[in-house]
Amino acid sequence: MHVIIVGCGRVGSHLASTLSGEKHEVVVIDKSPTSFSRLPREFTGRMLTGIGFDREILQKADIESADALAATTDSDNVNIVVAVTAKEMFEVPHVVARIYNPQAAEIYRREGIPTVTPTLWAANTMKTMLVTASLSAVATLGSGEVESVCLEVPKSLAGRTVADLTRPGEIVVGALVRRGQAVIPSAETKIEVGDQLHITAMVPALSKLEKLIAH
Question: In the chain, is it the N or the C terminus that has fewer CB atoms within a 10 Å radius of its CB?
Answer without folding.
Answer: C
